[in-house]
Amino acid sequence: MAYPLVAVTGIGAKATAHAVESKTRLLATALPAETSYVYAPDGKTVLTMFYEEYRQYTKLADISPNMQQAIVAAEDNRFYQHHGVDPKGVARAFVANARSSGVSQGASTLTMQYVRMALRDSASTPMEVQEATAQTPIRKIKEMRMAVDLEEELSKEDILERYLNSAYFGHRAYGIYAASEIFFSKTPKELTPVEAATLAGLVKSPSQYDPASSDQKGATERRNYVLNNMAQLGYLSPDSAEAAKTEPIRLRLTYPPNDCASVPQEWNSWGFLCDYLKNWWSAQPAFGENRLQRIDKLRRGGYRIVLSMDPKIQAAAEKNVGTKGNTGSPFANGIVVSEPGTGRVKAMAVNRTYSLNLDENPLSSNPEAGPNVKANYPNTVAPLMGGGDLPGYQAGSTFKMFPMLAALDAGMTLNTTFNAPHSYRSEIYDGWQPSNASGAMSGTQTMWSGFGKSVNTYFVWLEEQVGAERAVRLAEQLGLRWRTDVDRDHASPAKANKWGAFTLGVSDATPLEMANAYAAIAADGRYCEAIPVNAIYNRDGTPATFTTAGGIEREVAKPRCRQVVSADAARAATDAARCPTGDTPAKGGCGGWSTADSVRGTVGRPVAGKTGTTDSTRSAWFVGYTPELAAASFISDPDNPFNAVGDGQSQIPIAAVSNTLRDALKGKPARDFVPPSDRIVG
């Protein structure tokens, strides 16, 4: 009988003393995994949560005394008398187990149980999990030693608080906050003696004593056992305990949301930004060395995440791409709105329902998809607007911005003139011979008129002058990434300078990338990485931070910006980009007509932008911006890029952007663009 007690301070402890002391110090400061919450921009409305173990750490002062007393009565009625190990309990269990030649009776105190849970929760490998929970004498001896040491480090109240926040109660409820909410839809502070006894009874065997099962007999018997112990310990009067035992177990079950698919239906479209948040998070070194570690942090780190989405702008975007009644088309019409100067995503909407359920979706329009492959509509969770691993869609003439901006930044002027023929043979691009969309585009053009009319031959020639590789690298600096083998090959250092068709937008891009690239031009050439959050707080309420390569500590949610081109070059590009929209540039003329001359009248304020269509109008784009907002919209079939949307639908992205900018900025004073200098006008 004396052996287990001697072992705690004897041979077994001596052999592992250093390791045990080290782990004890770790457990004295370690906290259990905690649920991360995602909030709307008001910082109050919960949109969803991320967790593997639903848990929210709760201070002991916010836990009902009924619950504190019930857990002691259920698991360790000598908790306040022992110092981590209960000699009487150990001796009793040792004798019982020796007689049964097995484990028939436990002797774990609350402190020992907490040590086991904390070791399990802090384990980083399967082997550590196995060591923390293995039913072996040496593990038990280490556990005893650590419990004794821990009681020298922490008060009884600290240990009880940590235990109640670590225990598993079933139904994915880890900790008392989750258990109170899931079983009774209330906070731990509101638990009655009957409810507390019910929850305390679960810890021994959550499945065996589950009160949510069809038969509550086991749960009721276990609850009554706890109530009896509470009376014996003086926590309840005998009469109160007897009265409580006659009450039925009344549950109010709640199933907390988890992940993006649980975003409330009234904010369904917000699921796409939530999904982008996950993809963005998984790429942030601040949260781990690889994707798995980062997602684990999201699900276990107890963060408070405030999204960057603006409800007014999001509502405008949803209305203008038809998220409520236009989801039954193979052609996806999506829009992303970005904030110049911060990169924060203010809206993300597409004519799809964010849902994992594809049962009612028709078969894919792609003949190469194979049999029984579902289409992406009306339901999908695919990142159709960017931020994931999909390549995007050919963006057409919206890419003409990149060689123009590169030329301006290299010292060329807006008045750079070229007599653009209908068809142009390029010797630099090995005899490649593109042509314009119509004969009306031929003739002498400047950057203003060439951009406003989208003159292919002018921009192929301009790209030759500045060098295609320079335009490609600038696009990369503005956030574009090449996700197909073909695009990566053409963008490679060995081939980029021969990529003549780059200016015509043959590369795939996402609306997220294009909105953010054009936002940099609106911000006088200052590019900011796309970011889906306004704030990220650690579990202790402090902002989440990371350390830069230069050793500077920065908040993860702060904008990350850099100057990519000169402010004058960006202002000059904007002046030319006013021509496609029907706006009037500050310094030049647009040549009499443009490709989207209705935009200025719709938006009702200074606006710049560019249309884009691909061969046979397989996809159509418009990217537009004001000094305050940049928006990119597309229409295409994500399943089958050869399923042409047709000329008749090419106006849809133009309308989506112009109407969204109008609605989003309604009631705000109009701001004009800063004009370029006379030097860059030429």
- The chain-level mean pLDDT equals 92
Q: Give unreliable regions as ranges.
A: 1-16, 101-105
Which class best fits the helix and strand makeup? alpha+beta
Q: Taking Cα atoms only, what radius of gyration do you get, to the nearest Å? A: 32 Å
Shape: elongated
**CATH architectural type of one domain:** Orthogonal Bundle
Kindly provide the name of the CATH class of one domain. Mainly Alpha
Spatially, the strands of the biggest sheet line up as 5-4-19-18-17
Distance between the termini: 98 Å
Number of strands: 19
| Major sheet attributes | 5 strands, antiparallel
Number of continuous helical runs: 26
GO biological process, one term: proteolysis
Family: In the C-terminal section; belongs to the transpeptidase family.
Keywords: Carboxypeptidase, Cell shape, Cell wall biogenesis/degradation, Glycosyltransferase, Hydrolase, Multifunctional enzyme, Peptidoglycan synthesis, Protease, Transferase
Protein name: Membrane carboxypeptidase (Penicillin-binding protein)
Chart the SSEs and their pairings.
Blueprint: H1 3-9, H2 11-15, H3 17-29, E1 36-39, E2 46-50, H4 65-75, H5 87-100, H6 110-122, H7 126-133, H8 137-153, H9 156-166, H10 176-184, H11 193-202, H12 217-232, H13 238-245, H14 270-281, H15 291-300, E3 304-307, H16 311-321, E4 332-338, E5 345-350, E6 353-354, E7 379-380, E8 393-394, H17 401-409, E9 418-420, E10 443-445, H18 447-453, H19 456-466, H20 468-477, H21 485-491, E11 508-509, H22 511-522, E12 526-528, E13 533-537, E14 545-547, E15 553-555, E16 561-563, H23 567-577, H24 599-603, E17 608-613, E18 620-625, E19 630-636, H25 652-665, H26 678-681
Parallel strand pairs: 1-3, 6-7
Antiparallel strand pairs: 1-2, 3-13, 4-5, 4-19, 8-11, 9-10, 12-16, 14-15, 17-18, 18-19
Helix pairs in contact: 1-8, 3-8, 4-11, 4-12, 6-7, 6-8, 6-9, 11-12, 12-13, 16-25, 17-19, 17-20, 17-23
Domain Glycosyl transferase family: 46-230
Keywords: Carboxypeptidase, Cell shape, Cell wall biogenesis/degradation, Glycosyltransferase, Hydrolase, Multifunctional enzyme, Peptidoglycan synthesis, Protease, Transferase
Family: In the C-terminal section; belongs to the transpeptidase family.
